[in-house]
Amino acid sequence: MKKLRRKVYIAAGYNTISLGTGRKEFHPKKPRPGIEHYIKEAGQATLKLIGGSQNVDEGVVGNFMAPRFNKQANLPAFIPMIDPGLLWKPCISTEGACASGGLALIAGMKSVLAETADVALTVGFEVQNTVKAIYGADILAGAGWFQERKTGHAFFFPGKFSDRAGAYYQKIGREKARRGMARWYGNAIKNARLCPTAQEYHNTTEDPEALAFNTEPNPKAFVDNLTVFDCSKVSDAASALAILSEDGLQRCGIPKNEAVEIVGWGQVEADISIAPEDLTVLETTKRAAAEALESAGITPNDLGTIETHDCFTIAGLLATEAIGLAKPGEGADFVAQGHTDRGGKIPFNTTGGLIGWGHPTGGTGVHQAVTVWEQLTGKAGDAQVEIPADRPYALAINMGGDDKTVVAIVYKRGE
Amino acid sequence: MEYAERLENVTVLGAAGKMGSGILLLTAVEMADLSLKPENKDRKFVLNAVDVSDEALSGLMKFLRDQVRKIAEKKTVILRKVYEDRGDLIENFDIIDQYIFDVMRVVRPTTRLEAAYESNLVFEAIIENPELKVKLLSRIDKNNSKKPWVFTNTSSIPIHQLDEQAGLGGRILGVHFYNPPAVQKLVELIEAKNTLKEIVEFAHTFAKNLKKKIVPSNDFAGFIGNGHFMRDALHGIAEAERLSKDMPLYEAVYMMNKVSQDFLIRPMGIFQLIDYVGIDVCRFIMSVMNPHVKDEDLHSNLLDRMISLGVKGGQYTDASQKDGFLKYEKGRPTGVYDPDKKEYVVISEFQKKCDEKLGPLPQPVLPWRTVIGNPEKNEILGKSFKEINTMETEGAKLARRYGQRSREIGKKLLADNVARCEEDVNTVLLTGFFHAYGPINDYFN
C-alpha cells in the first residue's frame, strides 16, 4: 500500500459551461470562444478562490488534442496567460488521451508530494467543436493505436465501445444490457439538468430513459450496437482547481473543511497495442480502482459517491463491475435497479458525467475532481447529494483511450 | 447496353443552372460510385458539364466540391469499406478527400456543345424554351453516332413535342427533378407515347440509385407538379385581385399569402412560392402550358405587370431569395410590392389591420414545421381544418375556398388523364412541394 509522504488536498474548483449541441448558446455556424478563453476563465476563477497568482508555485495543464483540434501545442505557455503573476513560474502539460486531466491531477499531486510545490494551479481543457464530428472522430482516434485506425470504424471510439457493448449483449442478453444503458442515459440527463454548466442542462426530454431505450442503433450511419444516446457529446470546456499541501492551504487561507483530501490513488497503464482479453471487462479500470481503494484503506462500500468515465453508457455499466459494486455481468441490472441513481445506493456522476455534463476530453479528469470537491464540501447547489457520515469517501475514475491510461483517486473532505 | 455502360459518357446541358447543377451533382456521384466498384475498374466515366458561361462553370465546380464533401461526410461509414484496399487512405479526412477527388474527376466542365457528341445519355436542363431545347437536342442527335438517350428536365413542355420536333425517334423521357434536386426526393417520370421502354427501365434504376421517389405522370403540358402549382398560383392571384377591390393590392397579397401558408399549414405562402420559383419562370411555364389546355386560360395579367416593372423574384447564385411580390430580409418577408407606387410597403405598417380582417387562426396554432414530421399529423390537421370549417371569419372562408380549389385542381389532373391516380397527385405535392397533406382530401368538403 502506498503511503503519501504528506497530505495533499484539492480546493477552489471551477468549471466553465460545457459548450456544444444541447446548449442554447451553441450555434455550429457562429464563432465561438477559443482555447485562450476557456483556460483563462477557469484559471482566473480558481486564482480568485486561492487569493491570487502570488500563491501559486506551479502550473499544470491537462489536454489531449489541442495540436489537432486547435493547431496548438506548447500548452504550458498558456498558464502565464491566465495572470501576469504566473509569468516565469514552472509549468507542465500532461497528455494521456481522455485521462489527460487525471494525469494533470497526478502531476500536481506529485509536485506537492515532492515538496517542489505547495500550490499547483491545475487546468484541464479541450475545445473540440472546431471540426465536424466525422473529422473529430479521426482526431479522437489518436487515443487508440494508430496501427488499428485503417481497419477501425469511421467513428473509431464509438466503434470500439460498440464492440464492447456487442460482447456484453452476448454475455448477458441484449435487452437487459440496453435497459441498463438506457437507465444510465436517463440518470445522466436528469443529473445534468441540476447543474447549470452542464451541456444537457437545457435538455427537456420528458422521459430520456424511454427515449434511449426505444431508439435502435443504425449501423449504416453509425455503429452496430450504440445510438447517439449511448455516447458523450462533443464539448468545449475547461475546469480548474488547486492542488495544495497543508502549508499551501494555509497560504491561500482555505480551511481544511473547504478542501478535499486525496486519500488514495491508482495510476495504471496498459499496452496500447494489445487488445483487451475480454471485451466485457475494463481490466485497467479495475486495477486502478482497486489500487486507489486499497491505498485509501477502504472498500467500495465506503464510498458515498462516484464519478466514473462514462464516455459511453456501456463504459458506465462496465465500471460498476470494475469497481466491484456489481458482479461481472450484473452491472446492467445494478444500474437498471436504480442503485446508481442520485437517490440510489451509490449516486454516480451527480452532475451528469461525460454523457450529461459533457466530455471536453482532456479536461474531464479535472472536471470530475471539481464535481467531487463540490459534493464533499456541500457546494454542488441543486445537484447536491447527501454524503452519508459513515461513507464519507468519493471515487473518481478517469480513463484514457479504450481502457489504456486510467487514473483513479479517492477523496475525503478535509478535517 | 447495360446500366454502367450507358453511364460511361453522359452530358448535362445547362449544368451550371439551378436544376442542372443539382442533376450534375447527383449524376456525378452515381457515376463515381460506379467507377469505384471493382467490376468497373476498366471503364472510364466521363460527365460533360456543358453551360454557356465559363464563369458559371467555375462557380459550378466550387458548388460541386462543397456538396460532394457534405455527401461524403454523411456516408463515410460506407466509404471506408469502398476504400478498404487503399492502404494510403487511413483517416476519415483522407477518405473524404479522395472521394471528392474521385467524383470531381468524372466531371468535365465545358462551354462546347460538341462534348455531347460522344455521350450515351444527354440530360437536358436548360431554360424552359421549347425552340432552344429542340435546336440543341437535334443538333446533338445529328452529330452523335451513338443514338444517345435524352432525359429532359422540362417541367412543362410535352415530351412528345420535343421528341417529334428534335427527331429523336422515342429516345427521350421526361425526368423532372424538383428544386433543389440534391434535396428534393421527388422525380416525375414522363413517357411520351413513343418513348422506348428500355429508357424507362433505365430511368427507374437511375432514380432508385439516386434514392428518389418516382411518380409517373402522363405527357400533358405541366405534368402533375406544375399542373397543380400553376393553377393553385392563379387561384391565389385571382383571390388577391378580388380582395383588392376593397383594399390596396399589397394588403390583399399579404392576406392571401398568409391564408395559403398559416391557415392551410403549408411550408410557404403562395406568393412566396411564386417568388421562390421566379415570377418570370412561372409566367413562362404558364405560356408553355396554355396552348395545350382547352377549357381554361393559364395566364395572369398581374404576373405580366410585375415583370414589366422589373420585379421577378427567383434566387441569387448563393440560393438567397430575390425580392418579388414580397421583399425579403434574411429569407423572411418584410414587405409587399405595390405596383402602383412601384415600391415595397413594409408589412408591419398594415399587418395588424389585415390580420384582424382575417380573424384568428384555429387554436392551437400549428406552424407547418411542427406538423410535417409528426406521425399523428393527419389527426392534427383534421382537427385544425374541422375548426376552420366551423369558423365564419374572412380568413377561414378564404382558406376553405383555397383548399377546395386545390382539391378541384387535383381532381382535374385525374380527369384530364395527367395523373394516373389520386395517390400520385398527392405524392407530388407531399414530396415535391413538402406539403403536409395532399390536395385531394376531404378536409374542406
Short description:
The complex is a heterodimer of chains A (415) and B (445). By secondary structure, chain A is of the alpha/beta class. Chain A has 14 helices and 9 strands.
Secondary structure topology:
The complex is a heterodimer of chains A (415) and B (445).
Chain A: E1 9-15, H1 35-49, E2 58-62, H2 66-69, H3 79-82, E3 91-94, H4 100-113, E4 119-127, H5 133-140, H6 156-172, H7 174-192, H8 208-214, E5 236-244, H9 246-252, E6 260-269, H10 283-296, E7 303-307, H11 313-323, H12 331-336, H13 353-356, H14 364-376, E8 393-400, E9 405-413
Helix pairs in contact in A: 4-14, 6-7, 7-8, 7-11, 10-11
Chain B: H1 3-6, E1 9-13, H2 18-35, E2 46-50, H3 54-74, H4 76-82, H5 92-104, E3 107-110, E4 121-124, H6 130-143, E5 149-152, H7 159-166, E6 172-177, E7 186-191, H8 197-209, E8 213-217, H9 225-243, H10 249-263, H11 270-277, H12 279-289, H13 301-308, E9 326-329, E10 332-338, E11 343-346, H14 347-358, H15 368-371, H16 377-390, H17 394-415, H18 422-432
Parallel strand pairs in B: 1-2, 1-4, 2-3, 4-5, 5-6, 7-8
Antiparallel strand pairs in B: 6-7, 9-10, 10-11
Helix pairs in contact in B: 2-3, 2-5, 3-5, 6-7, 9-10, 9-17, 10-14, 10-17, 12-13
General description of the model:
- The complex is a heterodimer of chains A (415) and B (445).
- By secondary structure, chain A is α/β, with parallel strands linked by helices.
- Chain A contains 14 helices and nine strands.
- In chain A, 34% of the residues lie in helices and 16% in strands.
- In chain A, a hairpin with a 4-residue loop joins β8 and β9 (405-413).
- The longest helix of chain A has 19 residues, at 174-192.
- Chain A is globular, with a radius of gyration of 19 Å.
- The two termini of chain A are 22 Å apart.
- The model of chain A has no long low-confidence stretch (mean pLDDT 97).
- Chain B is of the alpha/beta class.
- Chain B contains 18 helices and eleven strands.
- Chain B has helices spanning 3-6, 18-35, 54-74, 76-82, 92-104, 130-143, 159-166, 197-209, 225-243, 249-263, 270-277, 279-289, 301-308, 347-358, 368-371, 377-390, 394-415, 422-432, and strands spanning 9-13, 46-50, 107-110, 121-124, 149-152, 172-177, 186-191, 213-217, 326-329, 332-338, 343-346.
- In chain B, α3 packs antiparallel against α5, α9 crosses α10 (249-263) and α10 crosses α14 (347-358).
- Classes of the chains: A alpha/beta (415), B alpha/beta (445).
- At the A-B interface, α5 of A face α4 and α5 of B.
